[in-house]
Each structure stands twice: as structure tokens, then as C-alpha cells.
């Protein structure tokens, strides 16, 4: 799982010769709130990640990092059954035939789940199929607006109201993992 990297925020702020107080004022947040983001005590909401990226001249993706050196533990969990006895969410392996930004290369296989929109959490990577094209995006929800943030700067941010997002839900898959075959 990726999480917000406060060190990247601090590095960019200093590169722009801004104090914490100045950047907080530009964002319209209390300096203490901003200081908590930079110290790693709190994570900014999606709205502020997007605004920080614009102000500091980067993409929202820049602020997220892969957590390394994680201990992997397995735990048996009971999955809820659907009334007809099936597991309610569909989990699929999808082979990718084309490169999708710098995250997935042709030949990789993704483990994805068809999950309800309401179960997605801010910052999660999703596979989106639209206009015959697959894209990997980061999901953010702010009030009743869904932001689908691209993983590269050449794509536009998709902004959807809840109704449009619900219509597009059948084309969104939560990325659970990736398998890279030996090449």
C-alpha cells in the first residue's frame, strides 16, 4: 500500500523557498495543520494533495511512496456470503497487453477486484476501462466529487460527480496486486 510521503512535501516546499506558514496561507489551512502533514502526524485530504501538487509544480502521485520492508503476515478471514451463497465481490487476474504508465508493463498480470465504489479508499490505485482504453489511476473522494488522478502527467484528472461515478463504477477495478512473469 502506498501512503503520503511527508519528506517529499518538505523537499518541494524548501525547493520553492517557502516557509511552512507561507504554504499554509496559500492553501488556506492553519499552519499547525500543515506542520502535521509535513511531520507525518496527519495526511492531507485529497483536495489538498491536488492543490499542493499544483502549487509545487508536480503531480499528486509524487507525494505517495511504496512502503518497503513490510512484514507480510497472513490471516484467515471469513468472507461474507451473498444470499445465493457466492462471494459478493469478483476477483480477477487480468493480463495487460500494453504498458500502462510506469506502473504496469505489457505482460504483467494484475489481481483486481470488482468492488462497490463506496468501498474504495482515498489514494487506492484502480484500473479504469474507458473508451476502449485501460488506465491506472488513483481514486480520491471529496464530498460528492470523485477525482481519478492519473499516474503520469500526460493525462488529465477525471472529475466526476457521484452520479457519473456510479455510471462508471462497472468499469473500475481495485488493484490488489501485480504478478510480473520472468522475461
UniProtKB/TrEMBL annotation:
PROSITE patterns: HTH_CROC1
Highest taxon listed in the record's lineage: Bacteria
Keyword tags: DNA-binding
Gene3D superfamilies named in the record: lambda repressor-like DNA-binding domains, Umud Fragment, subunit A
Protein name: HTH cro/C1-type domain-containing protein
A Pfam family that the UniProt record links to this protein: HTH_3
GO molecular function terms listed in the Swiss-Prot or TrEMBL record: DNA binding
Top-level taxonomy: Bacteria, Pseudomonadati, Aquificota, Aquificia, Desulfurobacteriales
Residues of the HTH cro/C1-type domain: 9-63
Amino acid at each position: 500500500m502506498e501512503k503520503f510521503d511527508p519528506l517529499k512535501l518538505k523537499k518541494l516546499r524548501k525547493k520553492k523557498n517557502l516557509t511552512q506558514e507561507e504554504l499554509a496561507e496559500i492553501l488556506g489551512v492553519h499552519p499547525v495543520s500543515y506542520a502535521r502533514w509535513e511531520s507525518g502526524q496527519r495526511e492531507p485530504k485529497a483536495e489538498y494533495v491536488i492543490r499542493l501538487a499544483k502549487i509545487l509544480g508536480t503531480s499528486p502521485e509524487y507525494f505517495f511512496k511504496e512502503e518497503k520492508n513490510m512484514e507480510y503476515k497472513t490471516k484467515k478471514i471469513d468472507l461474507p456470503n451473498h444470499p445465493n451463497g457466492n462471494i459478493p465481490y469478483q476477483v480477477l487476474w487480468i493480463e495487460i497487453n500494453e504498458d500502462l504508465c510506469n506502473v504496469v508493463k505489457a505482460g504483467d498480470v494484475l489481481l483486481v477486484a470488482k468492488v462497490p465504489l463506496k468501498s474504495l479508499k482515498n489514494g487506492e490505485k484502480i484500473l479504469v476501462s474507458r473508451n476502449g482504453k485501460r488506465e491506472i489511476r488513483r481514486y480520491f473522494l471529496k464530498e460528492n466529487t470523485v477525482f481519478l488522478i492519473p499516474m503520469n502527467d500526460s493525462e488529465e484528472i477525471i472529475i466526476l460527480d457521484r452520479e457519473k461515478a456510479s455510471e462508471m463504477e462497472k468499469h473500475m477495478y481495485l488493484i490488489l496486486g501485480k504478478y510480473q512473469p520472468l522475461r
